[in-house]
Request: fold
Amino acid sequence: MSSPRGRVLSLVNKKEVFEEYMRLLESRMKDVQSSIATNRMLAIDAPSAMQSHSDTSKAQHSWIVNSMLERLKLLNETIDLIRKINLEKTELIRAGAITLIEYPDYSKKVFALVCGSEPGDLELNGLKFNFISLKAPLAKEMLGKRIDDSFIFRGDGYEILEVI
Reply:
């Protein structure tokens, strides 16, 4: 996981990473929209309580639609928030920061901190990016830290190796 200069993140283009993440979220939105359309049709076609006293399909499909509409709303909010993130290089872990963390077992993982509530993983140019919400417990421990800072999370020590 090393780059020519020994720094994993030195060749990472933040804008490219976040654009790819946005494409991932937009793909999820299309899937949710398709699910909404399908469940709306199933709810319309399902027998009503007057037709079948034991059938609850109409209510179940309506509940799924409402749940998917909420997910769609959260995806839209996440995309809007990500568009507003300052992607300039930073030394401080904040929204939009991409950071390399060393785990207690000396393994390393790359995290990108995002606003909103839609986590995700993607691989780009051979590097795996783990997108986590600023509200996630791990992100809360990382916020405000810099390179070479350490922090404790769930009883284990972690070290910040790189931040861009």
Remarks:
- The chain has two domains: 14-83, 98-163.
- Residues 14-83 form one domain.
